[in-house]
Amino acid sequence: MNYSVAMVSLGCPKNQVDAEQMLYTLKEAGFTIGSAEADADAIIINTCGFIEDAKAEAIENILEAARYKSEGKCKALIVTGCLAERYRDDVTEEIPEVDVVVGIGANKNIAEIVKDAIEGNKANRYGEKDELDLDAPRVLGGYPFTAYIKVADGCNNCCTYCAIPQIRGKMRSRTIESIVDEAKTLANQGVKELIVVAQDTTAYGQDIYGKSELPRLLKELCKIESIRWIRTLYTYPDKITDELLQTVASEDKLVKYFDIPLQHVNGNILKKMNRKGDVKSLMALIQKIRDNVPGVILRTTFITGFPGESEEEFTELHEFVKKAKFDRLGCFAYSPEENTPAAEFPNQVDEQTKQDRMELIMNDQQTISAIKNEEKVGIETTAIIEGYDDYIRCYFGRTEFDAPEIDGKIFFTSHSPLKIGDFVKVRINDCLEYDLLGEVAE
Questions:
Q1: Which of 168, 217, 385, 401 is the most buried (most CB within 10 A)?
Q2: What is the CATH number of the domain that holds 421?
């Protein structure tokens, strides 16, 4: 057997980890991985199915890959990931170009499934959600110096707008020992930045240790000598403890960066979302984080147009954004998802209003971001080098205050050649709304 496989992985970092684990399984089974789609015997689309835009992107990629069944070598088009788990047989019924659908519980069998599909046995395969092996080894698919490390899968929060518990099941945490072992392996492979992820990272360990053990886990990861930066994504506001704040403040390797998906601030809307808090408590939390972690960068996400959101409730959210002045912010128009409680709520907000409200917040955030970037002009900061842009003739990378994919970049010049993956000191000379411009500090 000398079959080749191309994979396109969509969606969040957690889905990327699943993709990397499947690639390892395929490689160990003798497949050639990383082929161009036109040259691959099988193409895997590892999908996201969280919101409508993600589903549309998945379908677009599936249909794009399908043309290689006639124009290329492709004998099997396989769909994995959240869309596959959520819709199962509906995928092949609605998109006949797809040969096999693989639920997340069958990921461990991906090599056998792909071989069978190429050879003509094109049967959909599923398993129990908890059969997804969280400790499986992986092949890094992105930069060799940065890696996501998934510490748990699934979610117990049951927010009324979210389908993740249906797709991924209840939260399952890995042991600290397993996570640290993987992190050491990644470090030995050259990884210098770890990004800790889960659907709710602050809930890590509650199911196996009886309480959140995120602070203890982070302290253990900080002991790995060659790891330089550790950041955590998806920290829920009601689970940010004094212990976590103290840990982030005191450990040098923990970047001073909190990603807190608030989603809204109006108490009534949050209650409908099955979330906790209100304007007063959330503003107090923001201030508490800033007081306890000097120089901290705060990122959040919000949803506009949740069912029943009145003009007054939106205004409360809008004013909060202007007052809190987040360093990083994403905003999404509410997307009703099948089989979620919120999709059946009365007083659904019309699409135009949802979009208009989202744009108002993002326009204000653009101004806030530009002002914050202007304040950085003249200072020096550390950046990790991600590449060189031949068109504008400069290097680019990220500061410790920028997560991959979702935050801005720093573009900088250097009089001498630099190595991708190295850390350098950069003097900031100018800025854009979301990106920084500078030169290597000699």
A1: 217
A2: 2.40.50.140
